[in-house]
Amino acid sequence: EAQVTQNPRYLITVTGKKLTVTCSQNMNHEYMSWYRQDPGLGLRQIYYSMNVEVTDKGDVPEGYKVSRKEKRNFPLILESPSPNQTSLYFCASSLWGGDTDTQYFGPGTRLTVL
Amino acid sequence: GNSVTQMEGPVTLSEEAFLTINCTYTATGYPSLFWYVQYPGEGLQLLLKATKADDKGSNKGFEATYRKETTSFHLEKGSVQVSDSAVYFCALSDRGGSNYKLTFGKGTLLTVNP
Questions:
Q1: Which residue in the set B51, B98, B106 is minimally distant from A42, CB to CB?
Q2: Are B7 and B45 in contact (CB under 8 A)?
Q3: How far is A22 from A74, CA to CA, in rounded Å?
Q4: Least packed by Cβ within 10 Å: which of B25, B27, B53, B69?
């Protein structure tokens, strides 16, 4: 089954404790991206990647890091989480180039930083 | 920059009622337009899309027409069901450069009562 998976689905942590949220897709997509969803703000892009070893900042990158060492994986790293990073996070992927620009989303990771 | 404005919710309807959720956009270039749906506790699923002016996207009884002259992409369904209760997001993608970033509206919560 074609899908985007994220782990963990739920996480409660404390300020300053480094964490990683994993994202994996099995559709051989080149493009991957992270969004955060906050009430009243909709979804905003954090980082994106056009392919292996190619990443760039989205609209709200402060406090986050990413890496793309393999095509299927795109982890989101919070090196020193703060309470304002409490949010619902979504990973997305799509093909690169051609006519398709449909993005497929993972199930989300609900993060609470105390 | 790009932006999407959709009608504020929540929207509450009775089963079999007609649904309209308004969406207007501001964008440079020629964006693709999308409606995504988020069911309770789940990630975002693509509901329908349109890639050029006058295209009509349709799926599961929902429809939306890309209107360039009014910069709109309103979502409609003739007869809603309880199972349509969800949050609906209007979004655009202008594929600017290397980023397939989706710009989302803030979402509209729909509740359908039996």
A1: B106
A2: no
A3: 7
A4: B69
- Chain B hits for A104, CB-CB cut-off 8 Å, are 46
Cβ atoms < 10 Å from Cβ of A69: 9
Report residue A30 as tokens: 């080149």
Question: Which stretches of chain B are assigned E, i.e. beta strand?
Answer: 3-6, 11-14, 19-21, 23-26, 32-38, 44-50, 56-59, 62-65, 75-77, 86-93, 102-104, 108-113
Q: B6, B89, B100: best mutation site toward chain A, by most A Cβ within 10 Å?
A: B100
Tell me how far apart the alpha carbons of residues A86 and A102 are, in angstroms, rounded to a whole number.
27
Lowest-pLDDT choice from A80-89, A95-104, B55-64: A95-104
Separation between Cα atoms, residue A106 and residue A10, nearest integer Å: 13
Say whether residue B77 is in contact with chain A using an 8 A CB cutoff.
no
Is B49 near chain A, with CB under 8 Å? yes
* Mean pLDDT of chain A, nearest integer: 93
Asked whether residue A55 carries a pLDDT value surpassing 80, the answer given is: yes
Q: How far is A85 from chain B (nearest CA, A)?
A: 18
Task: Determine how β-strand B108-113 pairs with β-strand B11-14.
Answer: parallel
What are the structure tokens assigned to A46, written together? Answer: 């954090």
Residue of A nearest to B100 (CA): A101
**Cβ neighbours of residue B97 closer than 8 Å, sequence gap 6 or more:** none
